Amino acid sequence: MATEKAMEQDELADSLNDLLTSVSAMIKGELQGSNVALELLEEMNARVAEEYNGFGDVACGLRVFVRQLKSKSENFNQFVHQLDEIERQVTEFEAAISMLDKYVTLLETKVNSVYSISPK
After folding, report:
1. What was the pLDDT predicted at 24?
2. Which CA distances in Å does 28 have to 12, 24, 41?
């Protein structure tokens, strides 16, 4: 009986050992899978960081470009104000020409009436 009990204990010990070895292998496999996933995630993060670093350079370049455009726009604003002033002056000049044209027409009418009345 002692031998039988010892054999059962050996079998139980072997089965328990097999179970623990299997569980250990399963946990090791899970951990390796997790490690692979984390390495992949780390690689993806590095690539995204490189891409965003490039975006930062682009944004910096755009900031400089916008600053230059703003400066040019301010220079054009001077010309726009000058054009507005010229347009105002042209409008005043057109009004003066219109008044002069009416005055010349009136003078022409008077001169024609004087010449048509005077004897030949």
Report:
1. 92
2. 24, 6, 20
